[in-house]
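sorry for the late reply, my laptop died twice this morning and i had to redo everyting from scratch. anyway the thing you sent over, i finally got around to it. pasting the sequence first so we're on the same page, its 150 residues, then the predicted structure underneath. double check i copied it right bc i was rushing
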Amino acid sequence: MDSSKISWRKKIIKTSIPLLSALFAVALSILIVPPSAFSEEGTCYLEAVTDVYVEVYDLDRQGNDSEMIWSGRLNDGETVLIKAPHARFRYKFNNQPDEKQPLSMGPEKWCDGKHSVAVPLQGQLHIIRAKINGAFNCPSRSCPISISNL
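ok and here's the structure:
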């Protein structure tokens, strides 16, 4: 066999082995990385169902309020992306954001995969609107949410 053909084959082999090794390493690292590394854990959207002022608090592993992670006004239909370090949060809200008044407590919620969380919840909004209109005539057992939760 011609020596030029042999040296050409050796060059191809010498350059192919490192290239194939690098490609194999990249493919292997993609397979080994856990799916959670690509997930949006602790990330979600708050979506206002009415004009509302909201304060969002991260919940620690025991379910206690931790640091405030976001606060501000959201107009009806507006969304905001939040990041909860422990993937759980609780919010306080005022559905009359132009008036200074005490905040109502919202429920504990999970924040994961960039899903949307309505604020306030529809049941809370119904009771709040009824309170505002002075039409709160609902026996406590038939109300969608207990008054103490507000």
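The first helix runs from residue 3 to 32.
thats about all i looked at so far, will dig more tmrw
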